[in-house]
Specification:
single chain, 35% helix
């Protein structure tokens, strides 16, 4: 779909593609006329480095043919006196304020009234202000975020699990060591008891013999 917009700076009117809108009030405007026409015909988005201009939407949800027809009607001007030289603008035409009323969808709702003479620089109209950064875009301003105090690094889950495993292994090792010590004592006791019994049996045999 296409729209007819009025550029805020110089009040010129142009047909633009929906794909050209950066937001509700700003559009990208290709500088090269051939590139602009190609992108318009195919409803394609301009390159990322294309300059952005503020606009006011006059008509929207139009076909390309309807949008161009309204643009052409907006370009028509009254006859100029021979003493007044024409002033060139973005589309090489005299600038007028053009409005589309909301009471009817008919083309005749396109109203033109001459605007006060624009500021000129060497015979050319000044270009619309380029939105250089986000703060020029319309919309609610975002409060600056305050930097929070630096928090000490939290141990990772892996580190916590690793520490717990170390504790478990250490506990198991201690318990196993205690069990080994207990078994060693029992073994020594049994060995000593067997040796004592053998000595007693040997002594008894000597007495019998």
């Amino acid at each position: 779909m296409y729209c007819v917009v009025e550029f805020i700076n110089d009040k010129s009117v142009a047909a633009v593609a929906k794909a050209w809108f950066v937001n509700e009030h700003c559009v990208m405007w290709p500088k090269n006329s051939k590139q602009r026409e190609y992108l318009l015909q195919n409803n394609m988005q301009p390159p990322a480095n294309t300059k952005v201009y503020r606009v006011r939407v006059l008509k929207e949800n139009l076909t390309l043919e309807k949008a161009k027809k309204l643009e052409k009607k907006a370009e028509e001007t009254d006859n100029l006196s021979s003493s007044e030289s024409p002033v060139l603008g973005r589309s090489l035409r005299r600038k007028y304020q053009r409005q589309l009323t909301s009471s009817s969808e008919d083309e005749d709702n396109l109203i033109r009234r001459p605007m006060a003479q624009e500021r000129r620089l060497a015979g050319w109209l000044t270009a619309p202000p380029i939105l250089q950064n986000d703060e020029n875009l319309p919309g609610p301003s975002m409060p600056c975020s305050k930097s929070s105090p630096t928090q000490p690094p939290q141990p990772s889950t892996y580190q916590m699990i690793s520490d717990q495993l170390v504790d478990v292994f250490s506990t198991l090792k201690n318990e196993q060591q205690k069990d080994l010590d207990s078994l060693r004592k029992r073994f020594d006791y049994i060995t000593e008891h067997i040796v004592r019994n053998m000595e007693q049996q040997n002594a008894l045999l000597k007495e019998i013999l």
